[in-house]
Every structure is written in structure tokens, then in C-alpha cells.
Structure of Pirin family protein:
Amino acid sequence: MKTIIHKANTRGYADHGWLKSYHTFSFAGYQNPDRMNFGMLRVLNDDVVQPNMGFGTHPHQNMEIISIPLKGALSHKDNMGNKRAIEVGEVQVMSAGTGLTHSEFNDSKTDEVNFLQLWIIPEEMSVKPNYEQRKFPIQERLNQLQTVVAPKDKLIGTALPISQQAYIYRSTLDTNKKIELKPRDQNNGFYIFNLKGSLSVADFTLENRDALGVYDLDSVTIKALQPSDLIIIEVPMSQ
């Protein structure tokens, strides 16, 4: 098994006033040749948007974009006719494909919005753009894996579809609870992002916002050292 550790305090950081963003991988003004991606996972931004502020209309192309709100609600609008809020407990996916435009805005006058934005490199270019979002019950991830995103040709339960052989899981673990990860393909690796709490994984301890990439493995066990909330991204390590 091979590992790569990314501690929270090693992430890139940008403060634009209306937006504060931590970049796990190179993005915009943060460029680090050693932090370009983890397999097909290209971007993992931890964004905080101030009240009455947001991202104006802008384009995307040939990228799988996943948004996961952690606090507050983000209003979404795109050129496909979708106009709705994304709230805590929901996950949004967009296959940008041949191209789309969208905006994301914090409509609250008083409260910040915190959300994760992930970009996954697609397995097929120039697909028809697609947008979906869904609420996932918290109880279905307690001390177990909840699949929230899956390949469009291998959907699991109510998971949202993307154009890549990648999966995103959520889990909320009580102290001393364990989950075992086994890759769905030998080419896949896991990027384990600890939102809060304390985890033991492959001889590493992950605290708030720490992350660990593991690949070339048969399985790996995650143990909660204290109540923890985590997101796991399983991606092909090569196309």
C-alpha cells in the first residue's frame, strides 16, 4: 500500500474578502507542482462564502463537478434551466461536458456558507451536460459508508451519476467504530478527507481537515478515535 498525507495546514489558502478558500490541490493562484491531483481527483476546495456574495455566471467544460454544502445554503442557477438552493445534507453533481454556465450565490444576509467543491477528470470528453442534486439522510451514513456519487453506468442505490469510474462516500463514525475500504477496481485509490474529529488510518492520525491518499492496496481500515465525519473519494489513479 502506498500513501500520501496532506495535513490541513499544508493546503493553499486564498482570501478574496467575499470568499475564503483552502485548496488541497493547485488551483487559481495556488500552484504547487507536488499537489496537482490524486489520480483523477483534480480539485478539492474548502470554500467559505460571505453573506450576499457568490460566484457570478462562469463557464465549465469537460469536468465532473461535485458540490457538498457543510453549512448554510447556496443558490444555484445555470443555462440548462436549473434554479434551486443546495442545502446541508444534499450533494450536487454537474457533468460539464461540451460546456455549461452557472452561478452560485449565498442569499443569506447574515450567515456564511461553507461547502466543498470537487473536480474529477471525466473518462469521456464532450458528453452532454447534466445536472442533478439529491438529499441523503444522515442516519444512512452512521457507522457505515453511504454512497452519494457513482459512475453513471454503475449506479448504486440513490447515488448521483458522473462520467468517471469514481465514487464518493460519506460516513459519520462514533468513537472506536471502524469501516473497511476495498477498491472496486485494482487501479483505484482512496482519498480520505476528515471533516472533523480524529481518525486512525494506515498508521496515520487524521485530525480536522487532514487528508490521506491510499493506493496500490487490497483494503484499508478507518477507525474513529473520537466522533468523526468524513468524505472518501475513490478514483482511478490513471485513465
